[in-house]
Design a protein that fits this description.
The complex is a heterodimer. Chain A is mainly beta. Chain A has strands at residues 5-7, 10-13, 19-24, 31-37, 44-50, 53-57, 65-68, 75-79, 88-95, 105-106, 110-114. In chain A, the strands form two sheets. In chain A, strands 2, 4, 5, 6, 9, 10 and 11 form a seven-stranded mixed sheet that branches. Chain A has a four-stranded antiparallel sheet with strand order 1-3-8-7, with no helix packed on it. Chain B has strands spanning 3-6, 11-14, 19-26, 32-38, 45-51, 56-59, 62-67, 72-77, 86-93, 100-102, 106-111. Classes of the chains: A mainly beta, B mainly beta. Chain A binds chain B through residues 4, 31, 33, 40-45, 48, 50, 55-56, 91, 93, 95, 98, 100-109, 111, and chain B through 4, 31-32, 34, 36, 41-46, 49, 51, 89, 91, 93, 95-105.
């Protein structure tokens, strides 16, 4: 198992364009999370899935953001009509089990630059 | 409002010394607290988890304490090495289900 995989690692896009990031969690991990991190800040929670069900969304996740995990395996995060304020690193993480306190494994992140 | 505070100033220490990083929080009652390491351009890597009923946790050269009365966690690296240089993040369980809220992190630099 190679850990949580994210693609692409870097994306530069023009303002107004749509972008999609993909996350492949560690196999058999039923929880998948998306976080956003800007320079000098800690990661901020965006949303998480238990299998294919999206259980919580942060108010940071505006209507332009949508996340899916169609078969309870990989997930996609789409940002529509990107704005310069969307420039950040988008981190995916996964964990095993339902009980709180299970170790969360992060991917290497997908850097987004909106120009 | 809820806050997690870590020293925003970088901590510079000499190799071999013990590094101590602080995480203070307000208006939370977390069931557990976690510490992560993050290298530039990389995702955070889990280091240690300590539960609310635990006072101290150790792993190799790492030690974490958790004082729920003071609402503070201390993270210690003993016999520090230049390879320990990184940003260290504390994170609290703030909603159950492993939803974590992170501090801003403290950058540690271990010099020869």
């Amino acid at each position: 198992d190679t850990g949580v995989s994210q693609n692409p690692r870097h994306k530069i896009t023009k303002r107004g364009q749509n972008v999609t990031f993909r996350c492949d969690p560690i196999s058999e991990h039923n929880r998948l999370y998306w976080y956003r991190q800007t320079l000098g800040q800690g990661p901020e929670f965006l949303t998480y899935f238990q299998n294919e069900a999206q259980l919580e969304k942060s108010r940071l996740l505006s209507d332009r953001f949508s996340a899916e995990r169609p078969k309870g395996s990989f997930s996609t995060l789409e940002i529509q009509r990107t704005e310069q304020g969307d420039s950040a690193m988008y981190l995916c993480a996964s964990s095993l089990g339902l009980s709180a306190g299970n170790t969360i494994y992060f991917g290497e992140g997908s850097w987004l630059t909106v120009v | 409002s809820q806050k997690i505070e870590q020293n925003s100033e970088a901590l510079n220490i000499q190799e071999g010394k013990t590094a101590t990083l602080t995480c203070n929080y307000t208006n939370y009652s977390p069931a557990y607290l976690q510490w992560y390491r993050q290298d530039p351009g990389r995702g955070p890597v889990f280091l240690l988890l300590i539960r609310e009923n635990e006072k101290e946790k150790r792993k190799e050269r790492l030690k974490v304490t958790f004082d729920t009365t003071l609402k503070q966690s201390l993270f210690h690296i003993t016999a520090s090495q230049p390879a320990d240089s990184a940003t260290y993040l504390c994170a609290l369980d703030t909603g159950g289900g492993n939803k974590l809220t992170f501090g801003t992190g403290t950058q540690l630099k271990v010099e020869l």
